[in-house]
Amino acid sequence: MNKHLQFLRESYPPAPEWGRVMVITGANTGTSQCSSFSALLQHNATVYMFCRSETRAQAAIADLKEQTGKEARFVHCDLADLPSVKRCADEFLSKESQLHVLFNNGFVFTFLRRALALTILQRRPAQPRRTATAQGYDLQFGANVLGHFYLTTLLLPLMQATARPPPSPPASSSPPPSCTGTRIRSTTTCCASQTRSARRRARSERVRGSTYLYAHSKLATVLCAKELARRYGDEGIVCISLHPGQAKTRPLQARSLRSCAMRAGTDPEAAGWNGKYMTCWARLYHNNPAADDEAEARKLWEWMEEQVRAV
Description:
Layout: H1 3-11, E1 21-25, H2 38-42, E2 46-51, H3 54-68, E3 73-76, H4 82-95, E4 101-104, H5 112-122, H6 139-163, E5 182-187, H7 210-232, E6 237-242, H8 251-266, E7 277-279, E8 283-284, H9 294-308
Parallel strand pairs: 1-2, 1-4, 2-3, 4-5, 5-6, 6-7
Antiparallel strand pairs: 7-8
Helix pairs in contact: 4-6, 6-7, 7-9
């Protein structure tokens, strides 16, 4: 394919299918601010925003409504509190009978060192910062990985049911539209290549800097996505992890994010990328070898199952 045509295709992926139900976590910051998901509303998708802050979520919903004329729906969800995740999933399941795409977009990055430096420069007392989840896990791992894992497993039966092909129509009727499966798209970053063990230091311990712990959580996100793809790919579930781009900055960078997120969640071609990793401009990318460790991915999945079993 001509390079220019390929560039245009990746910059403007096909429109999402009409009538789909889609969930986005953490959509009140970053992605919604650069209109990454406005195309979903423009094409009549039912969009749910699972967010911790209702105030910011409602502001984002109002902004999207101004852009598209369509209104997203808010459900409270604190990914750093597993019972909150359960309540969120229960509320959604009481309202919808289908789920086509789950964008695991929310994430936490605790800039502890940067905050300390700014406090010293400004000569004022440091504000207490949250560093652990309600259950005592490192905040970045708990919200970025364990919270999303729990949410995904709670919504997975509905996605499996949605992915099943409809009953065969009578011979005289028109064939149903082709099914490309339901999608789970998890946000990670290039930081995923900076650490090797995905389960180490999940409990909150100040033994490493926040950048290490963030990278640790992002490696776990990639491994979890690969394991989900391995376990449920035969049931029509497509799981893709991706680098989100720079969500709050210049238009070119914002377009990179839209391209990546929209292609992973809506492009029919992406249905064949189960378990893959996408980087900026919607390009497939071979991640660090640690992210391909199937044994570690399986152990991580089983460990997380144990953590959420008693919730």
